[in-house]
Design goal:
The chain is α/β, with parallel strands linked by helices. 26% of the residues lie in helices and 24% in strands. The protein is built from 18 helices and 36 strands. The mean pLDDT is 95. This is 1,3-beta-galactosyl-N-acetylhexosamine phosphorylase.
Length: 721
């Protein structure tokens, strides 16, 4: 039987009758306009709550086209140009899309730009280069032959990157390009606020303003072939302007260089270890953004409407996990749910009344086309998200895009109906409470709480080949029966280890924000963590944890993990591998052949002595090892791509490392493809099948009682505890 509520339906123009059918079938109690469309009056009259997307800094071409020097700007690095003589020409826009970007020829280039000899690492004096604004060329004199040169320059963003993506994806043809606005400029800021007051007055039917989002786009730059050239969902590259840079200097007492944004071409991705300049700019920019977000939220409330923020598009500077977010007064946050990790990224946000997830697939033609079955992606997305919802519930769900596309796929329509009913049933049973966690686990890196559930990825829910082995750890944790928090190295140095923590997980590629890099030079950090593990704590290192070439060690806590990595300096020193322990608590649920997927290899890892318990050591390197350290334990794991088997492996690691393996059986499944979530306040538990195949499992309750359960594909079964 179809239930109703907690579901937001996307709508579009000239599709009212079928939309009403979908609303009834899916139990929708709210409707929102899709990007680039309006809701017909017939839909507004249905009695559902009305969400209206609002874009503060786009779709105002009538203003910004007359003030093109007040569009957002970005620091870009040119392609590297090799000098063959003492004269070099650097074309600024080579391999950039000229419909998206235009060099800033208005501000003094010698004040705001840099030209760098990348071979020598030398910033050229202003007298050594000049700008040819007619051809957008930088001309270098006195160059050194066979040296590479780059120009770091400011560029206006003249086509909103998200609208541009939607435009190209949906083939919107001659539709006018939407030009973005930068509210850092007082005149444009006043225009944006005045335009919003007018919009509020003209849209009395709107109940919820869905800000999509606010002011500054994450880094999204395209090349000359319209392909994504630079994507960083956490990037602040598109937030600069000459005035903001000058104001920063006044406030902080030092001037930022272009290189502080470009960083040799990395553009300060979240993988880069954040330095003072990057952290100060994030603080500076987010202070400005939040002040103006608060203004718009207050305006919304004065108009009798709710204010909802979409965690995407122009979200940069809002920083929902940075202290003070709750002061903005937002009613809700909605975000795209790609998997369990991104679900938690939304659901764990503090300081709002409710959270909402926009599930996949998006109703766009790249998925909804002849020959494809969108229901497969829909159920896969739901199964991944459901694990996380049980651990940290969202209040509402919905979809995005164009329902006219979805309606052409009856199987998908029925799949969504099933998912929506299951979501409402789940929420009614647990009353918004999270399942019980049995361990307290912290993820340790340079970013800490500010990047909760945001580690190891470049774009939203899209890890790449080099990082999926780490991202899988977060995905496993997102639906695991543990309580997760994110802490930084600075937190440890300032406050020590929280007394209630059972396990700390750290690691990532060497020389990144996640592994830590130079922070491991600090003896106080090493002393604190060693003392904690020695006294009974548990430290799990993944990939290249605590990696820094120093004092004959690469893993600075190799003594805790029992494992180090050969860096070709000690090849003359023999390494002896103890015999692999075939049967162990940690590996008990691996397939019969004992094989496990550890992802991208971390080559030449080895046990530092014969006391280490090796659990997997293939092809002359360690994949999994346990080390007793005082009365605590260290565990080394080379990587963990997400799978049901690997999630079970990590769960067993956490219980064993913390010395709580005797508690592991409580509320556990014998089948790794199934999981249990226990809700003591409601006196119930549920068992979920995380696959599209039938599964059987036995469940052990805390009192020792065992129940055998059969689950249909993707099923969720509730039991009284």
């Amino acid at each position: 039987m179809t239930t109703t509520g907690r579901f937001t339906l996307p709508g579009e123009e000239n599709f009212a009758e079928k939309t009403k059918e979908l609303a009834k079938l899916w139990g929708a109690d709210a409707i929102r306009n899709s990007d680039g469309t309006r809701l017909d009056q017939e839909l507004l009259n249905l009695g559902m709550k009305v969400y209206s997307a609002y874009f503060p800094t786009r779709a105002h071409n009538e203003w910004i086209s007359k003030h093109m020097d007040e569009t957002p700007q970005v620091y870009l690095m040119s392609e590297r140009v090799l000098a063959h003589e003492d004269q070099v020409q650097i074309p600024l826009m080579d391999r950039y899309f000229d419909q998206q970007l235009r060099p800033n020829r208005d501000a003094d280039p010698h004040r705001y730009w840099e030209v760098i000899d990348r071979t020598a690492g030398r910033v050229l004096d202003q007298s050594e280069w000049s700008l040819d604004p007619d051809q957008d060329l930088v001309r270098v004199t006195g160059a050194t032959s066979m040296h590479e040169y780059t120009a770091s320059f400011l560029a206006y963003i003249i086509w909103d990157p998200v609208e541009m993506y939607n435009h190209l994806t949906n083939d919107w043809g001659d539709k006018e390009h939407e030009i973005p606005l930068d509210i850092y400029h007082p005149a444009t800021r006043k225009f944006v606020m005045d335009a919003y007051w007018q919009w509020l007055d003209e849209n009395p039917a709107t109940d919820v303003v869905r800000f999509t989002t606010f002011f500054y786009q994450f880094t999204l730059i395209f090349d000359q072939l319209h392909r994504e050239k630079l994507v960083d969902w956490f990037g602040y590259a598109c937030t600069v302007s000459p005035q903001a840079l000058d104001d920063f200097e006044t406030r902080y007492g030092y001037r930022l260089r272009p290189e502080d944004f470009i960083n040799k071409g990395s553009y300060n991705s979240s993988f880069c270890i954040p330095g003072r300049a990057q952290r100060d700019w994030i603080d500076f920019l987010s202070d400005f953004v939040r002040e103006n977000v608060k203004t718009m939220v207050d305006m919304t409330h004065q108009a009798g409407k709710e204010a909802m923020m979409f965690l995407g598009d122009q979200w940069i500077g809002t920083e929902p996990y940075k202290p003070g977010f709750e002061k903005l007064g937002l009613d809700a946050v909605v975000g795209s749910v790609g998997d369990g990790t991104t679900l938690r990224m939304i659901s764990d946000i503090p300081g709002v009344r409710y959270t909402e997830g926009r599930f996949l697939p998006y109703f766009f033609p790249d998925t909804f086309h002849e020959g494809n079955d969108p229901s497969i992606e829909g159920l896969d997305n739901w199964r991944k998200a459901r694990r996380a919802i049980l651990r940290s519930p969202i209040s509402r769900m919905g979809y995005g895009g164009y329902p006219s596309l979805a309606a052409k796929f009856p199987k998908f329509v029925q799949t969504v109906a099933r998912i929506a009913d299951e979501f409402r049933d789940l929420h009614d049973r647990i009353k918004g409470r999270a399942a019980q966690g049995q361990l307290n686990v912290a993820v340790l890196n340079s970013w800490g709480a500010m990047r909760s559930w945001m580690a190891y990825t470049v774009a939203h829910a899209l890890p790449n080949k080099q990082t999926y082995s780490y991202y899988g750890v977060l995905e496993a944790l997102s639906g695991m029966r543990v309580n997760v928090r994110f802490i930084s190295f600075d937190d440890i140095l300032a406050h020590g280890v929280d007394h209630d923590l059972d396990v700390i997980i750290t690691g990532g590629p060497a020389d990144t924000a996640f592994s830590g890099g130079g922070v491991w030079k600090n003896p106080a950090l090493l002393e604190t963590l060693r003392s904690w593990v020695d006294g009974g704590g548990a430290l799990v290192g993944i990939g290249q944890p605590t990696a820094l070439e120093r004092e004959g060690r690469f893993f600075q806590l190799a003594d805790v993990f029992g494992v180090d990595q050969e860096r070709f300096h000690t090849l003359s020193v023999d390494k002896y591998f103890p015999k692999v322990t075939e049967k162990h608590f940690i590996t008990a649920d691996l397939p019969e052949d004992g094989k496990a997927d550890f992802g991208e290899p971390v080559v030449n890892t080895y046990p530092i002595n014969g006391d280490v318990t090796l659990l997997r050591a293939d092809q002359g390197q360690v994949q999994l090892a346990v080390n007793q350290y005082g009365i605590g334990r260290g565990v080394y794991l080379s990587g963990l791509p997400y799978s049901a088997v690997n999630a079970r492996l990590l769960e067993r690691i956490l219980f064993y490392a913390s010395g709580q393996q005797d508690r592991y059986g409580d509320w556990s499944c014998t089948n790794p493809h199934c999981e249990v979530a226990y809700f003591p306040q409601e006196g119930v538990y549920c068992v979920v099948n995380n696959t599209d195949q039938p599964q059987e499992t036995s469940v052990r309750q805390a009192d020792g009682q065992v129940r055998d359960i059969v689950l249909e594909p993707s099923a969720m079964v509730w039991q009284q505890a």
